Amino acid sequence: MSPDPTLDEAVGLHQSSRLDEAETLYGRILEGNPGNPDALHLLGVLHLQRGALDDAKSLITRALEINPDHPFYLCNLGIAMLESGAIDDAIARFTKALSIDPSYLDARYNLGNAKMAQGDMAGAAEEFSRVANMEPAHLPAANNHALCLAEMGRLTEAAKLLDDIVTRVPQDLQTRTNLGKILQQLQRADEALVHYDTALAAAPDNLALRNGRAAALIEANRFDDAAAAIEAVLTARPDDQDALLNLANLQAKAGELSAATETFRKITELNPGHAGAWSNLGSLLWRHYRYDEALDAIRRALAIRPDHPDTLDNYALALAASGQPDEAKVVLDGALEENPDHEGLTFDRALLALARGAFGSGASDYRARPGIQQRAGYLFRDRLPADLTGQTIVVEADQGLGDELFFLRFMSQLKARGARIHYAGDRRLIPMLQRASVADSVTALSDGPPRGDGTTNIAVGDLPYALGMADGDTLPPSILIPPLAERVNELQQTLDSLGLPPHVGVTWRAGTAGKRDAIFKQVPLEEFANALRGLSGTFIALQRLPEDGEIERFSQSLGAPLHDLTALNDDFDSMLALTGLLDSYICVSNTNVHLRATQGRACHVLVPHPPEFRWMYDGDESPWFPGSQIYRQGRDGDWSPALGALRSDFR
Description:
The protein is an alpha/beta fold. Among the domains are: 93 residues, Rossmann fold (3-Layer(aba) Sandwich); 166 residues, Rossmann fold (3-Layer(aba) Sandwich). The protein is 57% helix and 8% strand. The strands form 3 sheets. The protein has a 6-stranded parallel β-sheet. Helix 21 runs antiparallel to helix 22 and helix 27 crosses helix 30. The longest helix has 14 residues. It is elongated, with a radius of gyration of 30 Å. The protein starts with a helix and ends with a helix.
């Protein structure tokens, strides 16, 4: 820079944020020397700081006419262009600056920002990663790198990156905010709340943090706390769009369809370009069987953000639910071509493929399921060799109890390949699995599975892929678990004391209501009971955690006693024996269906729409549960045809 003391004085004022005085001095310099490129450039930067973008671009362009290869000039002109929306022009300036000085961090960081604004998340992530590698203390670059990964669906990787930053710089509020948001997307709401609470202790009035915390409270199903947090923000700022979005999502999870729809529409009235509100409105509507409205709302979102992967995922789910699975697959395939590492897109394509019998591709994509990515660093996630003689395979449980029992059917194929098998599972299942001889040894996963040299650790849900499952394969049957003889005798006596056969078990609900990706299965209690009214038999409630009055309401609609054996859900050996003894079990899919399958017994399964993959996209039976009869909720949400067919089958 020029040694002119007047210019040095102007720069000093500029750096001290005394912009008016600095502007006066820059003007005096240019009066005497209109071609001073540094003065032109710095005056342009001053206008850029004030938001006077046209003046900034004009002045910096004049400086570049004099010195066309100055990387600082190019970078700041690029920033002005980026802020004015000329993204391609900005990228050209940043790229030229870097061709002159590849180590220029500000140019590379802003190139990442420009690519991010352009929607090129992969390209942006590469630039931010290079900045962070060159300067580990550059927290904005590291944060933006993580945000790009999250947009690409690489949530686990993004969370790990931000967690490492928090470990190094625990006081950085922006990192904690971003980490909280990503942990929430990973359904790790309790962990997200820790970061939000820590950040809010330092900045209690930060609305972004308060809105993030409210969203995490919703994800954690702490509805009362979430409502209070949202109300506090809306009291301070009634039209805060993030708070309104939280309110709409809370209303949706609480089943308040009309209120949630109204709130989503209020957001779109305030901001017609709010793609997230349009997409979430569509998600709400298709889950309430209003498919045309849902697809219209999601298409509005896509008109704003055509390539947004989460919106495309939502669009595919809506198409599949509305009866257009082929179109849904096309959307998922296209989105994954652009976002090949997106966990949500991949997992939803897996569920669609498996539900339609494409077991090979479905098993491969199923490796992207939520939760397992945290253990991906040490688990084997590829194909196993055909000959495993002499090898020790440690199979680890993942997901829920029902999933664990379901996927154990593939253990026999491991044995057939000659492996020595150790199984690390849910502690509650260990005695039963030891009796079933599913492995050479069985321990609790919570005690820590064996790891290290000589062992290959694999998740039980990855076994279909690891063993080479292909389309058209004959599916292995459920494992068989011998019940305890004394429990069988006890439960048979209990059943005999309750009434004459047939003894019919019933369950009307499973899963957790409200969570976007949770499996929630429920049939209206009174409609279910009315369908069984007048049929002969002794009816027994196997419902886990029935709500107050539910058994009495079911009994009243049934017109007969409903005997309460629901407490046995906490005693797996007793429930195992009971499910094997029942003459019939009419239910939504739940863990007891898997227990009954281990007794070689079939069920009558009420399948909500859209169906869980185990019960297939259509058909009266599932190849996973041969002999079990399926009764499907209508695509319009109506249970009447299914319950009518159920009643006819039991007459």
